[in-house]
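Predict structure. Chain length: 727.
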Amino acid sequence: MDKLQVQLTAILNLLNIKIFRILLFLLIGVVMYSAMYSNVKPEKLNLELFSVAEQTIRSPITIEDKESTEANRREAVEQVKDVYRVKSEYAQNRVDLVTSIFGSVSEVNAEVQEQIDQKKKTAEEAEVEDAPAPEGPSKEEKLAMLKTKLTENETKSLSDEVFIALLQAPKEELLVAKDLTVTAINNTMKYSVPADEVENAKLNVEEELKYTSLSSSLKKAVIEIGRYAVVQNEFYDPEATEDLRQQAMDSIEPVRILEGQILVDEGQLISRDVYKKLQLVGLLESENSYKPFIGLAMLVALILFALFVIFNEMENADKKQKNLLIFSIIFITSILLMKMVSLFDEFEYSEIGYIFPAAMGAMLIKILINERLALFQMAILAVSGTIIFNEGITGTLNVTIGIYILISGLAAILFLQKQSRRSKILQAGLSVSVVNLIVILSILFLRNSQYSGLEYGFYFIAAFVSGIVSAVLTIGMLPFFEAGFGILSTLRLIELSNPNHPLLRKILTEAPGTYHHSVMVANLSEAACEAIGANGLLARVGCYYHDIGKTKRPQFFIENQINMDNPHDKLPALTSKNIIIAHATDGAEMLRKHRMPKEIIDIAEQHHGTTLLKFFYHKAKQSGHEVKEDDFRYPGPRPQTKESAVIGIADSVEAAVRSMAHPTHEQIENLVHNIIGDRLQDGQLSECDITLKELDTVADTLCETLKGIFHSRIEYPEMNKQKVKQA
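Prediction complete.
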């Protein structure tokens, strides 16, 4: 173990150099990348077109089949018919056109009649007897008059016979003809008349007008006008058509190859469509993708950066390097153990990951470092587990096992919150096993699948083994970390506080007064340290051992001088001084010999600091010898930590209060403040980071604790009688 400590010390010294810290981070990254490399490597299958698949192949990813999606969209667009819209205003326009033609005919007839009436009136005024009846314009003239009122399109589209028939028709019949024509046109064009149905629409009008009671010539005329009036009223709408096509395209869902989807069954022929899908998901040898390796490298780099930031924030350089090395060892061990467990996946034990002792790393780091790093480590392990345990699933990430690892680690951190004794780690492991089982059952129930009793039994065993093995490994590895790194964990402190410890039994049997004094100082120190945020447990355990040096010469210390004379009364002051001062250095040496933690040794050395042995110093001066004050001071060093400073104050306070007959509250307060004031003036607290405010808190706490110990008691009658007899 000593050789191991030397090697670890050498490594820690190297970590003080920046380049070696970087190399350690790179080592962590290399281990992580190597452990997960094979799990992200795309599976390559040597498959040929039109060959027979030797196994059932599932898609490892979810990906869109863009080619199939586009084909479906093109098919949807092709199924969209062109949109035609009926322009209802066309029917009214053609009715108005026919009405205007009949109106023009009526106007011409009116003008002709007016001319005839004018000629007749002129003849009557000339009083010409037997004058012939005036004649109107000729047929050709009327036709010419009518054409001037019509447009060129109408005069060219309709024959002259149509216009002549209209001009020659009686007025009443002309009105009937107009109404029949308008009605027939309206009846036909109120419906859609596409381009290829125009002739049929004309025939409909013709059929409707053919059976009217009009004269033969007029009937032919209105039929020709009706046919001329009917035109196409349904036209192609490009905008509406494009909108429908776009809607059809949007309604088509992308064709996706889902993760886990069967691409080809065992024994099935690999068609072109199947071959294309295999190529699309990257399962053919011709498809070489480096993206998974780049993604893994980015993930590892991100984790290393987070680790660097966390450790860079630590203030104490020595503690930083020690914690970094401890974290690295535990984390790398967890990753390698995870990889070893995952190797069983190749034997079709796809659920073997549930056996992995996920809580081990969380327990060790929480005990040896702190809870924050334990939480961070569990997050990293959970992410790594989703990749390392991905054998037997269709995707790259096994999210289920990641959730299991994370919750298992969190449960370990939670159950160790107040479980400090080493014997309680196994109980925490059992609690983690219960949590593991609950997590597994919840996952199985969420899947809503059917499992056999044998499968449930396997999951139960896996959950139990994971928690118990985590606790066993933690218990087994803790001594190596504590001894190798000189770590004083909470568990170690509680073990050192066991009264059966050889050194404590030595104090109890050889110096019982010192033992009682140490227990009293421990009570005072623990309360004071906890009040200022220092390590109360360390203070208590340190107090148990701080006077271990007195066991060399227990009778020379007043608390052990029961029913005996004080040997210092017969010794020179210088000799007494050497004996008293030696207990600090002797105690430190004894603690080193028993390989006690450095913090406990420091407390034994520092609890008196460089204070002056005033009693023997003044005794030496009174003897007439020339003495130096420095010769009667403890060798120190002065307290370097808050715990050492508080223990030194509590040690003096307890001894002083115990020497008082009936201390009052006021006397205790004055005594405590005087001792702290003397320590401050003597510079004994100048080398630790305790503040004046914290010293006030320490003083108040010591006073409260001492008042509880030395409170007033009721004198019973028997006690009073006994006193009278003694008097």
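Summary: The longest helix spans residues 89-125.
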